[in-house]
Write a structure and sequence with these properties.
The protein is α/β, with parallel strands linked by helices and 314 residues long. 45% of the residues lie in helices and 13% in strands. It has a five-stranded mixed sheet with strand order 5-4-3-7-8. It has a four-stranded parallel sheet with strand order 2-1-6-9.
Length: 314
C-alpha cells in the first residue's frame, strides 16, 4: 500500500540539530525511523528568537495566572519575543498533519513542562510550554505528541495512525474521492467513534447539495475531532471480532483459540493493536477478501514502523 507522507512539525533538537539548551541533540529511535516516511518541518523556537547554543536555562513562571518565560540567571523575560515569533510562525503553517515536540521544554513541552511560582522557585505543576500553548490553541484536534511518549507502543501506533489517516485526506478532491476515502477508513472510524463516523458519512452524502469546498472543510473538521481521542479497547475488539466473523467457517479450532488468546492479551494491555491486526491481515490475504484488503484499520501506516518486539504474534 502506498501512503501519503504526513507533514509534521518537530522540535529541531530531536534528531535534527544540536540546538538544545546544553548544546546536545536528542536521539530518538522512532523519530529516526520516521524520517523516511514523514515530511518533517524542524523548528527550535528558542534559537529563532535569538537565544544562543548553548544557553542559560529558561522556565515557565505563573504569576497569579500570568504565564511568562524567564531566564533566571540573567533575569531576561523572553515572553514577548516567544509569543510574537509563535504567532507569526503559526500564521504561516499550511496543511500540517501533526506535531512531535520536545518533552519538558519551556517552549515546546505539550503537557510536561514544569511551571514555577514567581516569588519563590516552587513547582506549581506541569503544563504546556509557551510555543506549544499557541500550537494547542490553533490546532486543538491535530495529533500532538512528545518524543518520550513515543516509547509507549500503544500511544505511538495511535499517533502514527492519526497522522497517516489525516495525510491521506489530502488526496481527496472530488465527491467520488470523498466517498472512497470514507469507505476505505470505515472500520478505523468505527473503532474510534461510530456516531461521528455516521455524521461524517452524512456530510459526504451531501444531501444539501453544497459545494465540494464547503463539504471538505466540514468533513475534515469532523475527521480531526474523531481522531482526537484514542479508540477504546472495547470498540477495537468489537471491530476485530466482527472481522473475525468473515473467516470463522474457514479457520481451524486452534487458529480461533490462538486469536481469542491474542485478543485477551490486547484487552489486558499486554500487546498493541497491531499484534491482533497482523493475524487478521494474514487471514484477509490468505482468503483473498478484497473488501477487507482495502480497509485502513488493518494497515493504517507503513508496516516498517511497527516495532518488531511489540508486533510479533505471541
Amino acid at each position: 500500500m502506498k501512503f501519503v507522507k504526513p507533514k509534521v512539525i518537530i522540535s529541531k533538537c530531536l534528531e535534527f540539530d544540536a540546538c538544545r539548551y546544553d548544546g546536545q541533540i536528542i536521539n530518538n529511535q522512532y523519530v529516526k525511523k520516521l524520517k523516511k516516511f514523514i515530511d518533517f518541518q524542524p523548528i527550535c523556537p528558542e534559537v529563532e528568537i535569538g537565544m544562543g547554543v548553548p544557553r542559560k536555562p529558561i522556565r515557565i513562571i505563573n504569576d497569579n495566572g500570568n504565564i511568562s518565560l524567564h531566564q533566571s540567571d540573567t533575569g531576561i523575560d523572553f515572553s514577548s519575543k516567544m509569543n510574537q515569533f509563535s504567532d507569526k510562525y503559526i500564521s504561516k503553517i499550511n496543511q500540517i498533519d501533526g506535531f512531535i515536540l520536545k518533552s519538558s521544554s519551556p517552549s515546546c513541552g505539550i503537557n510536561s513542562t514544569k511551571i514555577f511560582s514567581k516569588k519563590k522557585p516552587i513547582l506549581l505543576g506541569k503544563g504546556p510550554g509557551l510555543f506549544a500553548s499557541k500550537i494547542i490553541q490553533k490546532f486543538p484536534n491535530h495529533p500532538k505528541e512528545e518524543e518520550k511518549r513515543l516509547n509507549n507502543s500503544i500511544l505511538r501506533e495511535y499517533f502514527f495512525t492519526c497522522i497517516f489517516t489525516i495525510a491521506d485526506f489530502r488526496k481527496v478532491m472530488t465527491f467520488n474521492d470523498l466517498y472512497n476515502y470514507h469507505a476505505k477508513h470505515k472500520y478505523l472510524f468505527m473503532s474510534h467513534n461510530q456516531l461521528l463516523m455516521t455524521k461524517m458519512g452524512q456530510i459526504a452524502a451531501n444531501k444539501d447539495n453544497q459545494k465540494i469546498e464547503s463539504v471538505l472543510i466540514k468533513y475534515y473538521d469532523m475527521l480531526l475531532l474523531l481522531l482526537s481521542k484514542k479508540s477504546r479497547y472495547p470498540t477495537n475488539i468489537n471491530t476485530q471480532m466482527h472481522v473475525m466473523g468473515y473467516f470463522k467457517k474457514l479457520l481451524t479450532t486452534k487458529e480461533k483459540k490462538h486469536f481469542l488468546e491474542t485478543i485477551e492479551l490486547y484487552r489486558n494491555k499486554k500487546i498493541s493493536i497491531s499484534s491482533v491486526n497482523s493475524i487478521l491481515s494474514s487471514w484477509i490475504f490468505r482468503f483473498e477478501n478484497e473488501y477487507l484488503m482495502n480497509q485502513s484499520f488493518f494497515n493504517p501506516f507503513p508496516n516498517e514502523l511497527i516495532d518488531k518486539d511489540q508486533s510479533m504474534v505471541l
